[in-house]
Each structure stands twice: as structure tokens, then as C-alpha cells.
Amino acid sequence: MEGSTALSTHTDEAAPGARPPQVRQPRLVIAVDGPSGSGKSSVCRAAATQLGAAYLDTGAMYRAATWYCLDQQVDLDDEDAVALAVEELPLTISTDPQHQTITVGQADISAEIREPRISEKVSEVATNRRARTLLVAAQRRIIDEAGFIVAEGRDITTVVAPDAQVRVLLTASAEARLRRRGAQLGGTQDAEALKRQVLERDKKDSTASNFTEAADGVAVLDSSDLTFEETVNSLIGRVEQAQGAGA
């Protein structure tokens, strides 16, 4: 790929059995933003699988960049050093919703980027303006190449893909988000650790992007009192509505 990062992508075909879209459009982008623990990744992955779309977890890219900086012993307080590391980042990310792999060089770090030590440091990379610019450019290339894709993160609806046909802010109460992240981590984190990884991280990241309030034209999907299936179906319903409007 052209660009200032070493980013590359796998655009594997959707798995057999995935529901094909009702109307296949040349470009159909579903952009979903939201805070930590809102369920973005699991909901978007499930929706992409059912729709037969590609899937992009932009948060995984920031986590991979954080892992790389820590692995290379880059001082996260040195903005120039972090930006240089991201520029050189040899990242490969899969866009198959049923087979998510993230590699840096030859190392598969799909599991490692979900560790608490990454969660507690990722904001320091995500709020680095130069690093963010590099990653946003890479995300736009992935979206453009996929064409039909569910992309989720914190600034997808406003910065990365503001022209997406479906733009949703997926949110939930703080209590629900803490509970979900705790369950995701298998109960290994105490209450204070969860607050650092969820609420405090959101506070830090909000200095770089606004993902707590919906921008103009962005629909709000509050999953606090919805089951996982209801949340996925609600998102798919918005996509099908957009597909019908574009027919």
C-alpha cells in the first residue's frame, strides 16, 4: 500500500453461511463509534458476519501501535518518537469478521493487544496527534479498498468516514460498560483497574475525539437495556434501511 505507514490488510472473503446484503452497492460503509465497553467490537463483528461485509477494528490498530512502542522501548511521553514508531509500524490486520488476526512483523499479537497493560497505555498513543493522523490515513485506505465494510472506533463517524451511509454512536451506561469489560477479562481485574481501563481511558481519549455525543446525522444506539442479539439486529436494521434507500 502507498502511504507513510507499513500497514497492510487481509481482505479475506466472508465466511460461508454469512447472510449476503439485500442490495450490493459499490460502496457501503457502516461507521460505528462508542466508548470502551459499549460492545462495539462484538456487535460490529457479528453484524459484518451476517451482512457479508468486511470488518475493521480501528481500536486494534491503536493497540498494536502501543504494543510495538512498548516492545521497542519507545518512551510514550516522547511524541516524536511515538510518531516515528507508528510510521515504521509493520502492521497487518485482517478484515475478515470471523477470523481476526493482528500481526506486527512476524509476531501474531491478536491476544496480547487485549492485555490490561496495553489497555492502560493505549491512550498515550491514541492522543498523539501525528500518530493518529498516520493511523487515520491507513484506516481510510482500508475502508476504500473494502467498499462494503463495518468500521468501528472512536472517530469513524466524524473523522475517518464522515461520508458513511450508516453512522451510529453505540453507547451504554457506565455500569453496563464496566460490567461487560469485567466479564470480557474473565473477572481478573478489580474495580479500580476496570475504571482505569474504561472510564479513565475514555476521559483521556476524549481529548483527541468526541465519542460521547453524537454528531449531526449520527444515530444513537443505547445498548444498556438491550440483549446482544437485539443490539446486533438494531444495527443490521439500519444498514438494511440504507441499502433500501440506495436501491
UniProtKB/TrEMBL annotation:
<dbReference type="Pfam" id="PF02224">
    <property type="entry name" value="Cytidylate_kin"/>
</dbReference>
<keyword id="KW-0067">ATP-binding</keyword>
<dbReference type="InterPro" id="IPR003136">
    <property type="entry name" value="Cytidylate_kin"/>
</dbReference>
<comment type="similarity">
    <text>Belongs to the cytidylate kinase family. Type 1 subfamily.</text>
</comment>
<keyword id="KW-0547">Nucleotide-binding</keyword>
<dbReference type="GO" id="GO:0005524">
    <property type="term" value="F:ATP binding"/>
</dbReference>
<keyword id="KW-0963">Cytoplasm</keyword>
<keyword id="KW-0418">Kinase</keyword>
<keyword id="KW-0808">Transferase</keyword>
<feature type="domain" description="Cytidylate kinase">
    <location>
        <begin position="30"/>
        <end position="240"/>
    </location>
</feature>
<dbReference type="InterPro" id="IPR027417">
    <property type="entry name" value="P-loop_NTPase"/>
</dbReference>
<dbReference type="GO" id="GO:0006220">
    <property type="term" value="P:pyrimidine nucleotide metabolic process"/>
</dbReference>
<dbReference type="InterPro" id="IPR011994">
    <property type="entry name" value="Cytidylate_kinase_dom"/>
</dbReference>
<dbReference type="GO" id="GO:0036431">
    <property type="term" value="F:dCMP kinase activity"/>
</dbReference>
<feature type="region of interest" description="Disordered">
    <location>
        <begin position="1"/>
        <end position="26"/>
    </location>
</feature>
<feature type="binding site">
    <location>
        <begin position="34"/>
        <end position="42"/>
    </location>
    <ligand>
        <name>ATP</name>
    </ligand>
</feature>
<dbReference type="GO" id="GO:0005737">
    <property type="term" value="C:cytoplasm"/>
</dbReference>
<protein>
    <recommendedName>
        <fullName>Cytidylate kinase</fullName>
        <ecNumber>2.7.4.25</ecNumber>
    </recommendedName>
</protein>
